[in-house]
Amino acid sequence: MMKDWHMLPAEIEAQSMKIIEEELGEISLPPLHKEIIKRVIHTSADFEYARTLRFSPQAVQAGLEALQQQAVIVTDTNMGLMGINADGLRRLGCTKQCFMADPEVKAQATANGTTRAVAAMDKAAALQGPLIFAIGNAPTALLRIQELIRQKKCRPALIIGVPVGFVNVIDAKEGLMKMPVPYIVAKGRKGGSAIAAAICNALLYMAIRKK
Asked: Coiled-coil stretches, from where to where (predicted)?
């Protein structure tokens, strides 16, 4: 028999987090990492992320500092963009952008013979202020960001590299983990726009508490 079907969303989330905490059991995780991992598991119901999410040293701190300095979060899908909590951004004075549907980006991609994701990252690199890239779908976006960093055209505050799929996905993630920038990566093929948004939201909630 179904129980507690009348629970409010906040109550459901609280109970879900309690269940996740219990099922993580004795897995030892750094506290700041654990909060993000729990949010990802809450989104995906996939406990494998407790083993596969990788954090560069000080990645969480770098993300929190960027959010406290009115960062721009750039996504590679409108789905990821919509999943990032708008009220949390507003409270911190941050913004979010996705250029995948931008007519200029479409024209540039066609002219250069690239994916629209590559052209979108080129446009994003020109944005002012601390940049957080949240890549959940397009490994070509992640690869292009790495090129821009090597060319000294972009220095992100944090890169969330969690594209999902089979082609170039693992190479793009492994390449990111060799870059001299803060990163949060989901090793292997798993990921997605919802996972990227969940990581952003976990950071937003943490930054709001520290405000």
From this structure: none
